[in-house]
Specification:
The chain is 27% helix and 16% strand. The chain has a single domain (20-238), classed as Rossmann fold (3-Layer(aba) Sandwich), CATH 3.40.50. The chain is an alpha+beta fold. The longest helix is centred in the middle third of the chain and has 17 residues, at 81-97. InterPro entries: Class_I_gatase-like (IPR029062), Peptidase_C26 (IPR011697), PuuD-like (IPR044668). GO terms for molecular function: gamma-glutamyl-gamma-aminobutyrate hydrolase activity; transferase activity.
């Protein structure tokens, strides 16, 4: 988060943060989560070398200019180009070194953009016939069904579930699919892509989901078990 005079705490300062559910989720199975500082690359690389895998969390929108577009509505949904640049250099490191990646919500969209894809800047504006994917009042209690693509990793993780349910906290989504990405799941109502993996990643160790699995830890069905997805990610690290 960058300086904001209207913010009560540390208004004139930049902040690095992790939402608490995310930290708790990553800390499962004895994993030590590390918040990576934004440093010049010559100082950042030794830190990245010490890490076994990377989780890209949710948060602010990606800036349209990051994927070669201009805002569809001036002044709306400007995104965060500074965070984009910071996270893309970390993602580039993970790709080059073959490190496992779990990309969540914004991270899922970042993965698509890294691979050359584009985004709907606002689903409700650009796809008015789409189902509701974000409700500020319901937030992570807003849910919808997804359909797994048969034979892909999500079906291997969860089996053939009749109606998988996920939370939905996003107003942007994949428009043009990035190169070397395989679709794992879609929303059956409008076809919005909900999960992908990198086709040529070693041992299929780079996966992204549009929902927030960390928000569903400890909740009963109908949500997909978030720990099954995380265990899959950890299995790629252990290899």
């Amino acid at each position: 988060m960058y300086p904001d005079p209207s913010r009560i705490v540390f208004g004139p300062k930049s902040l690095a943060y992790v939402e608490s559910d995310m930290f708790a989720y990553v800390a499962e199975e004895g994993v030590l989560p590390v918040l990576i500082p934004d440093l010049p690359y010559h100082r950042l690389e030794p830190i990245l070398e010490a890490l076994d895998g990377f989780v890209f969390q949710g948060g602010t929108d990606l800036a349209p200019q990051t994927y070669g577009e201009t805002p569809i509505v001036a002044g709306r949904w400007p995104g965060d180009p500074y965070r984009d640049k910071y996270e893309l250099k970390i993602m580039d490191y993970a790709f080059r070194k073959g490190k496992p990646v779990l990309a969540i919500c914004r991270g899922f969209q970042l993965l698509n953009v890294y691979c050359g894809g584009t985004l709907y800047q606002d689903i409700a504006t650009q796809l008015p016939e789409a189902t509701i994917h974000r409700d500020a009042q319901k937030y992570d209690t807003l849910v919808h069904q997804i359909d797994f693509v048969p034979g892909t990793s999500l079906e291997q993780i969860y089996g053939r579930l009749p109606k998988p349910i996920v939370n939905s906290v996003h107003h942007q989504g994949i428009k043009t699919l990035g190169e070397n990405l395989t679709i794992l799941a879609r929303c059956p109502v409008d076809g919005i892509i909900e999960a992908v993996e990198v086709s040529d990643a070693p041992d299929k160790n780079i996966i992204g989901v549009q929902w927030h699995p960390e928000f569903s830890v400890g909740r009963s069905t109908p949500f997909l078990d978030p720990l099954k997805l995380y265990s899959y990610f950890l299995s790629k690290i252990k290899k």
